[in-house]
Amino acid sequence: MRGYLGAHDEGTAVTSRDLEILPREECLQLLRTQSLGRVAVRFGEAPSILPVIFAVLDDDVVFRTDPGTKLTAAVMRTIVAFEVDDADPTSRTGWSVLVIGPVDEITDATTLAQVAALGLEPWVDSGRDRVLRIRSRTVTGRRIPHR
Which residues are CB-contacts of 25 (< 8 A; sequence separation ≥ 6)? Predict the structure, then answer.
């Protein structure tokens, strides 16, 4: 792991810059505390980073969308990155979680019903009737601890 230095006395792994390395399960728990994240998609030479309202289903990120960049990425089964974070500027603490994996469109009725049960509703009412799923192949996270 690049930048890995060691561990605090409590056994928490840290980077060379003293950021705590979060285990996968803690990253997934933190994901479940938020509803706004960013998905990064690349087409050709231009990357796009787009905000999405999301939920977590079976350790995967799900969100609604309409036709456009995100849906095109899903149809092409593109590998995307998804990030969510939280920070407190006053205490200078925070965390960040990154999910990387292929994105695809959910079309089967059973899974769509599971997503509906999550209460996933877009903030913008613009016909976001397609549901995408980012398969969580890689889940990593870092925390800036309280000093």
Answer: none
Helix (H) or strand (E) holding 89: none
Phi, psi of 113 (to 5 degrees): -65, -40
Question: What span, in angstroms and rounded, lies between the C-alpha atoms of 49 and 43?
Answer: 11
Radius of gyration of the chain (CA): 17
Assigned token pair, 35: 């509803």
Long-range interactions of 75-81: CB distance < 8 A, separation 24+: 75/105, 77/102, 77/103, 77/104, 78/41, 78/42, 78/102, 78/103, 79/103, 80/39, 80/40, 80/41, 80/134, 81/39, 81/40
| Sequence spans of domains, the chain | 24-140
pLDDT digits (tens, 9 = 90+) for 12-64: 676 556 789 999 999 999 999 999 999 998 777 778 888 999 999 999 999 98
> What digits encode the pLDDT tens for the residues 67-92?
776 667 666 778 999 999 999 999 88
* pTM: predicted TM-score of the whole model, two decimal places: 0.83
Write the CA distances from 3 to 48, 66, 142, integer angstroms: 27, 39, 12
Which fold would CATH assign to domain 24-140? Pnp Oxidase; Chain A (2.30.110)
